[in-house]
Predict the 3D structure of the following.
Amino acid sequence: MIPTGIKVRKASRCLELTYGDESFQLPYEFLRVQSPSAEVRGHGVGNDVLQFGKKDVNLVRIDPAGNYALKLVFDDGHDSGLYDWVYLKHLCDNQQTLWDTYLQRLNDAGKSREAQQINFKAL
């Protein structure tokens, strides 16, 4: 389950994981909204918190967590949750289904991937 390669692709804004001959590209936004943290997952079944407005989130740092996980730090301040090797492989193997489910949940909640911005007007 441990990837044989891990690359940060800044231009395409994704984390590339390689397992043998197979590579997966996980966009930063996908990783952020699928965070295994309690802040996102909640404290129990059915208590997850829908993440929205994360389309332009950036990955600013990756820290190893022993020999079993990565800690991803995002520019929106989110830095909790450890992406262990099993969970990262799960994200790779189920990316399209997880993404489709996420987009449907956003739609059902009337939320957007776009960040809410405050437009300032000069006086």
About this structure: The radius of gyration is 15 Å.
